[in-house]
Amino acid sequence: MNELPITRRHDKTLSPAGKRPTDAPPWIDEIDNPYLHGLFAPITSEISAEKLEVQGEIPRDLYGAYYRNGPNSAHAPKNRYHWFDGDGMVHGIWFENGEARYRNRYIRTYCFEDERRAQESIWPGVLGPFDFSLPRGPLKDTANTDLLHYRGRLLALWYESGQPYALNFETLETEGIEDLAGNLTGRISAHSRVDPATGDFVFFSYSDQPPYMQYGVYTEAGRFHHVDIGLPGPRRPHDIGVTPNYSILHDFPVFMSKELFEKTGKRVPLFHPEVPTRYGVIPRFGDDADVRWFECEPCYMLHVVNCYEEGDWVVMTGCRTSDPTLRPDPADGKIAAMLAGLKLQANLYQWRLNLATGEVREGALDDFNTEFPMIAPSVLGLDNRYAYLQHIPEEIPAAFHSLVKYDLKTGAHERWDYGEGVFGSEAPFCPRAGAKAEDDGYLVTFVTDTRDWSSTCQIFHAQAITDGPIATVRIPQRVPAGFHATWVPGEELG
Ligand SMILES: [Fe+2]
Known about the structure:
By secondary structure, the protein is mostly beta strands. Helix content is 6%, strand content 36%. It is built from five helices and 33 strands. Strands 2, 28, 29, 30, 31 and 32 form a six-stranded antiparallel sheet that branches. A five-stranded antiparallel sheet has the order 1-5-4-3-33. The structure holds fe (ii) ion. Fe (ii) ion (FE2) is lined by residues 145, 190-191, 238, 302-303, 484.
């Protein structure tokens, strides 16, 4: 089956010489979709491995665990597959005393368990059409998108707004739904934040029904603040900005026609360049009436890098897509819209919103295509200097070609290319114990080599990424491309 067409654009980079990963399930060979093949092909095993082989030396002060979430379909899709659809799988690597161990596990969501019992897919994917008669909703909550650590557990979150699934730090077993001490009855989006100074858990969610957005905060003391936010219609905001006193809500002019959705069951998000982007600045414990909306240039953005306050200004830096117009290539057939949509083409950009005057200033910091930003966790909401991103080449949507370190004060960057046919993962910052400088720490990332399908975990010193990895740890199986990652310091692992 190796010679089956995979998708003309992706043959070379994602499946060199037509060789499929041998650990991928056989059913992928029947489906012509690049996000089930090569770098993106699911694996079928859940393993644990101790004392991993290392090239170089794992720093002895690197103590903690790197976890990465991502899609890994357990069954052949029921209808047209989108990269966002796969069942959530977490890959974890633990470092202590210069040694490393690895484990990967599926996130056992309710839908995953239903499909495991049925031994086949039950839910359609995000490309629809949806089936509203299905139990648990028309889409499968896979929890496959983000990970954050909160109160001693790892939370797996889903981009469409789902139930937060709590995973055990050590075993990665799914322990159940995190409902914030019984307060959270609804869903939350993938990108919540935990304020490092207060422990406040700040979150939002969105839906197709009015008022279309909810915003919430859950405090260390157990206060649960949850309010409706009115938007002009159904939107697809992906992230939220957080400062010590405010949160920044997103309303981008990329939205579907509600009428078309009701008629066809398909979401077709379109860019409306005549409609402004709106950012809503809400006090941490504010409600809908407190939101100050600022109109900005039309765009889309998946991920915020960071936000901070400066006098009357609220400043937000993010990975902005200036022209989210879909340009599907008819030669890509039925998956043309998906392929076009995954071409992020985002660059670092800053918005300054003045709460006293209503003034907006905005502009690009650079024009290099980067996404999946990480910062030192201690500087969330503060005026920080460094960010760590992934460069994604235009011709291979969603494949991370280089690790990039930005100086946000100058817009300058340096980069480390993983290598021809070699791709990384989101790379969180791991502070060194007692570090004084913001960038005194390590960056860790899973790296997969499509030439032989080997995977490693590479460790970089954040102050010298252009020196290359200081340690390369062999992972005893392939790690497919994925979404978001996090670092949990050893002291918090318990
Ligand atoms: Fe995301």
